[in-house]
Amino acid sequence: MDANEVLKKIRKIEIKTRGLSQNIFAGEYHSAFKGRGVIFSEVREYQPGDDIRDIDWNVTARQNRPFVKVYEEERELTVMLLIDVSGSRNFGACGDLKKEKMAEIAATLAFSSITNNDKVGVIFFSDKVEKFIPPKKGRKHILLIIREIINFVPESRGTDIDVALQFLTNALKKSCTAFLISDFIDDHDYFKSMTIANRKHDLAAIQVYDKRDAEMPDVGLIRIKDMETGAERWIDTSSAKVRKLYAKDWYARQQKLSSTVARSGVDLAQVTTDEDIVKPLLGLFRRRN
Fold first, then answer.
1. What's the predicted TM-score (pTM) here?
2. How many Å apart are CA 69 and CA 51, to the nearest integer?
3. Strand pairing category for 119-125 and 129-136
4. Bridge partners, 114 (sequence order)
5. Distance between CA 111 and CA 19 in Å, rounded?
């Protein structure tokens, strides 16, 4: 993709996603994610009804009467986007490519966060952390992120969500709001790392998938290629047994995802490549209010 094409794509995504952020998501984003972090503000004398866990024992000892710590909502958040750049993101049979839908979602979240004066950073991952962009503020930084999402070429094609979540937990010392954007085609177990990441941070998962991931059409003998391993083989899609096994594998994968996010306390939104992102994202935001 040449420079002019990249600039056109960036501009197109910016126009669409800034509009969504400012006109549709601004209030929903603010109420869903603001106030989840608190910072120490001051101390004051204890009053009946105050939580004894908030007593500042150092000040209490010095003053010979009880004082409590007062907290206030954090005025700015740090938002991290964990973006799957594995080989399977290049698939899209029923709508956009998965990577195009992921870019739209990521840009919308990024513009929503700068509208609220939050910092935004990115972790690109495959079966390893491919690139880390530290959190910063501003439109220029968001456009850099969008350019990277469009242009980024990973070294690996596999997927390991566990690695990305461990990196998030270790790299970000301060609590942040994190969005894990992936198709979740991953055979690794990431329950433990997801639970730990969600305890330290405020994690939400967004699955982007194509309807052909879930259901194989009856189109006769075709050659298929695994986008992550590069392996190719011929399969007979006219076989009801083959189509049933394909659907069964998808169902098992979805069950694993549903179970993992439920047990780890993470909210999940699901977006297909042929649908508008507004309804699923609004649903995610509203579930968190």
1. 0.78
2. 10
3. antiparallel
4. none
5. 9
